[in-house]
Amino acid sequence: MNGRLTGKVAFITGAGRGQGRAHAVRMAHDGADIICIDICEQIESNKYPLSTIEDLETTSKLVENLGRRCIAVKADVRERDQLRDAVQTGVTELGHLDILVANAGILPMALGNPKPSDFVDATDVDLLGVMNAVAVTLPLITDGGSMIITGSTAGLMPGTTSNSLMGPGGSGYAWAKNTLIGYVEQMALHLAPRMIRVNAIHPTNCNTHLLHNDGLYAVFRPDMRGTKPTREDAELAFTHFQAMPIPYVEPEDIANLAAFLASDESRYITGQQIRVDAGALLKFPNGPAG
Q1: Are 76 and 12 in contact (CB under 8 A)?
Q2: Would strands 141-150 and 9-13 be described as parallel, antiparallel, or unpaired?
Q3: Catalytic residue list contains 173
Q4: Is the alpha carbon torsion for 253, 126, 70, 61 positive or negative?
Q5: From the centroid of its chain, how far is CA 238?
Q6: CB 219 within 8 A of CB 256
Q7: Could you identify which of 16, 22, 76, 290 might form a hypothetical disulfide with 56, taking C-beta atoms 3.0 to 4.6 angstroms apart as the criterion?
Q8: Looking at the domain assignment, is residue 96 inside a domain?
Q9: Do the domain assignments include residue 242?
Q10: Alpha carbon 202 to chain centroid distance?
Q11: Cβ atoms 109, 170 nearer than 8 A
Q12: DSSP characters for 37-63?
């Protein structure tokens, strides 16, 4: 433990597994106590499985194994009252709040049955869920705190989610992540007088359930339409997406940056769009078809 976050408390959404769990573990390693939430149930339009209550409990145990306190609450980022109750429970127990990591996100895909509601589901979680997290933490977060928003390289890159297989859910995901760019910059301006930083991290392909599912494998391998691409098939296309010859980054790569942005070492860094994308946007500035 290097202590860069000692004495701080972080509120992390979507912490049951994947990037959210990595944030919780890394920040606990660096000395923070954690308030973590996840939906712990399925959203029908999202075809890959979302986190379970057991996943959230595992995250809590991993934090506690590092000697830090953890308040884990089942809550849905689409429901502002649930978020408000969760963060208030955590602050009552832990005393204060210094860090927000608005990480929860989904990628609904049509898989042959597109519905307009898929767009709504994606934007409700990926955009409104972030705005709800900011809204409920704003009255509680300490001056000099840090808000960290999970975006996506796909939100910066044209054409990444326009594949017909992804349908309205893919469009909603990309629109939400792109809209977060301006939202982060606006919040950074408005919170600057309180010395609160607001920054976005934009990952490329990341080694989580959102990437590893049959629907996204099919999107990355349209040449295999009519068959069922395997993970190995998809990883060939995943690797093509980055400038560096890797198929994806790890959740810990995102958590490493978030820990820095949460710390006082980044005290004057705000309103930034920081990519952890292995050069993907440099390779395809006009999108993968450009």
Answers
A1: no
A2: unpaired
A3: yes
A4: negative
A5: 19
A6: no
A7: 16
A8: yes
A9: no
A10: 9
A11: yes
A12: EE--S--TT--S----HHHHHHHHHHH
Kindly state whether residue 91 falls inside one of the protein's structural domains.
yes
In angstroms, what CA-CA distances link 70 with 32, 104, 137, 162? Answer: 9, 18, 17, 39
Beta-carbon contacts of 170 under 8 Å, excluding residues fewer than 6 positions away, are 107, 108, 109, 110, 122, 161, 162, 163, 219
**Among 48, 173, 183, 217, which one carries the catalytic annotation?**
173
* Contact by Cβ (8 Å): 36, 83: no
CATH number at residue 105: 3.40.50.720
Q: How many domains would you assign to the chain?
A: 1
Question: What is the pLDDT tens value at each position of the chain, 290 positions in all?
Answer: 579 999 999 999 999 999 999 999 999 999 999 999 999 999 999 989 999 999 999 999 999 999 999 999 999 999 999 999 999 999 999 999 999 999 999 999 867 788 999 999 999 999 999 999 999 999 999 999 999 999 999 889 887 666 667 789 999 999 999 999 999 999 999 999 999 999 999 999 999 999 998 888 888 888 888 888 999 999 999 999 999 999 999 999 999 999 999 999 999 999 999 999 999 999 999 887 64
Which strands form 141-150's sheet, in the order they lie side by side?
70-74, 33-38, 9-13, 97-102, 141-150, 197-203, 273-276
Q: Is residue 53 part of a domain?
A: yes
- The C-alpha atoms of residue 180 and residue 186 are separated, in whole angstroms, by 10
pTM: 0.96
Q: Which amino acid is at 287?
A: G
Those residues whose C-beta lies under 8 Å from the C-beta of residue 147, and which sit 6 or more positions away, are: 99, 100, 102, 134, 137, 141, 187, 191, 196, 197, 198, 199
Going 187 to 90 to 12 to 256, the CA torsion angle's sign is positive
Domain around 23:
9-206+250-279
